[in-house]
Amino acid sequence: MKVYTIPLLIVALLAVVSPQSIAQQSQGLFTFEKSNNAGAKVDIYPKDKAKNPISRYLYAKFAEHLVRDVYGGAWAQILDNPGFEGWKYFTGREYSWIGQRYGQYAKLAGMPDAKVKESTNRNVTPWWFDRNIAPWWLAYGSGNVVYKLDTDSFNSELAQKITVNSLKSQQAGVFQAIYLPLHREQNYTLSFYARSILPLKLNIAINKVAEGKYVLAEGNVKVGTKDWKRYVLKLKIRKRVKNGTLLMLSIGLSKPGTVWLDQMALFPDDNVKGFDADVVRFTRKSRLSMLRFPGGNFVSGYHWKDGVGPRDKRPTRMNRPWDMIESNQVGTDEWMAFCKAVGAEPLIVVNAGNGTPEEAAEWVQYCNGGVDTKYGALRAKNGHPKPYNVVYWELGNELWGRWQIGFTTPEKYAERYRKFYEAMTAVDPNIKTIANGQSLKWNAPLVQKDADILRSVSLHTLVGGGTSKYSDPTDVFESLMAFTFSYADELRALGAQMAKRVKDPRIAITELQIFTNKPNLPNNQTLSEALFYSGILNTSIRLDGLVEIITHSALVNHAGGLVKAREIVYPNPVYFARTLYSLQSGTIPVRINVDSPMYTSSGKYSPITEVPYLDAIAMVNNDDNELNLILTNRNPRKTLSTRVVLHDFNPVKNVRIKTLTGKSYMARNGWENPTEVKLQDSSLQIKGKELNYSVPANSIVLLTFTRK
What are the sequence ranges of the domains in the chain? Predict the structure, then answer.
């Protein structure tokens, strides 16, 4: 990730931008001038069109196997550690998550305050930590009961062994504290592998915490074989509970016996090819154009063959970049199913960190090869005889960064890129590759040595890292907004460097977000991210096709996009910004002149003077009968009275409007209030070719005009 730090927020631009007015520089069809009053004016000339239509891949997203973007996010499976693996996989961030979950459980269960506090205290061994029970799982019941993490497993390393010698309670076994998406689904399927020495009955139930008699669903499974066997149980929730209520899934014995458990999964029945129905619905509704996966830093240690074949037999690995477990339940075929379900083009990032060109070429063959090829045949064996025909492939992730597995020098990467390119295109010459790009210095050897095979370079733009929590929020906000306007100079410089040797060069911004990560400052969960994203999009649109792709970070529970909390999925404000751009019909930018009040982003930040408060872009559709004007008011406090003048375009009276705004640039949604910030539809009547419109502070407004 390229992190633009504060106070060096604009440090990457200093080589190409001097501290001057950038607003008054004409950008081809797009001109910004300082207004002489507090209002703004926008003149639109639809006859003057850009040479190239914009790419719909500007409205794309990025997903990575980190935190809860995939597992506990896009993936619908409910349980944590479904493979009952051991504690070596849970020493990092997941250790803290376990403490948070069971801190909630302890409070609901009426445990002493000391146990609640102990749950998240890393200086003591917490009450929920037991070397004999798999992480995320706890024992319940009393008696002579022995637990063991046994190496006699169905898959990977360990299984949970439970031996009940005698009971003092009705049952004993293991349970996990869970949330369920009961706002939309009451039917669930539990599957697992089990074996036993003698026949026995497993009792399975879903209860409310601390209310064992309040049974929401229950059933039993008879286990009667020494060999591993898969069992499936349907569970129907028959009682109502409040959304976001912590529940318990328990699996236990009511009589003496020994059972081994492994590879347990709990899916809501409305899952879409294994993915969360709400995530699929929101993503499809927003008309996602492209999805980049599986990373991110993750991919530099990822080996794609771990993630294909029967899910129950895939190996468990350590996700080294993010210090967490990787079950490989979501792999190539799952991601391709998701892309199909939401209508998105896949962009696959290959492991150019500790991977090899041969491995990457085999991945291309798995995705695109016929059934008469080795890996095309493997794909068919896995249930997918038709090739996926994946076009876009990114060759590594951030290999210029010292945090990256396999990081290297610019010169060595140029050599690595050629080896990967040649191996992959030998399998499929029709693929389009994206090289790891970043700065002028890093890109120079690529352009010098690989110009004949170079078409596009990636750029990761994460702005605001290192910002002090004591910074003034409005100063940070205005600096972030200024960055989006000045960003054009960095993009032009990178494009000009490539154009000297590369025919028709392109840039793919494959990671993008505000990176302050401070709850009291503008961050990727707030309306600020939507306004920031709008600015980056507008800047990219003005560059006449130089930027071919923007995969904004990220899909679920990572940066800005969708959030899944307590199994409730809701959008961040930036989701609505991307939806607004993606659903509007405009594809061809047209000439626009903007007169706007301006401000200076200076103080302790790199100075950029005369930044327009009003950003604007105008586009016509392919049939030239619809004009879409997007206005973004970056003023943190004031509504902008704006006069819009259409030239050579006679509209019908009705103007359709979509507005995204909030109480401030810090406005955000939450699982208990998921619609605090959302798109609002309205309309107005235009007389002739002019209208006056008040653009709210901190807002994005889409005005759609239809030609008579």
Answer: 18-52+591-706, 57-73+273-584, 78-85+126-268
CB-CB neighbours of 597 under 10 Å: 18
Name the H helices within 387-464: 410-427, 440-450
DSSP H helices in 192-331: 277-285
In the numeric block, which tokens belong to residue 183?
């706002």
What value, to the nearest 5°, has the Cα angle with vertex 524 and ends 699 and 92?
170
Fold for 18-52+591-706, please state it.
Immunoglobulin-like (2.60.40)
In the three-class reduction of DSSP (H, G, I as helix; E, B as strand; rest coil), residue 120 is classed as: coil
Tokens of 666: 């810090």
- Is residue 261 within 8 A of residue 194, CB to CB? The reply is yes
Q: Is 498 helix (H, G, I), strand (E, B) or coil?
A: helix
Return left, alpha or beta for 305; rule: phi > 0 is left, psi -120 to 50 is alpha, else beta: alpha
Phi, psi of 113 (to 5 degrees): -55, -30
605-636 residue pLDDT tens:
567 889 999 999 999 999 999 999 999 999 99
343-398: pLDDT as tens digits:
999 999 999 999 999 999 999 999 999 999 999 999 999 999 999 999 999 999 99
Which helix (H) or strand (E) segment holds residue 487: the answer is: helix 473-499
Residue 63: both structure tokens together:
């997903």
d(CA 351, CA 294): 10
Length of the chain: 708
| Cα diameter, the chain | 88
Whole-number Å distance between alpha carbons of 102 and 100? 6
The pTM (predicted TM-score) of the whole model is: 0.96
**Residue 198: predicted pLDDT:** 95
Assigned CATH topology for domain 57-73+273-584 = TIM Barrel (3.20.20)
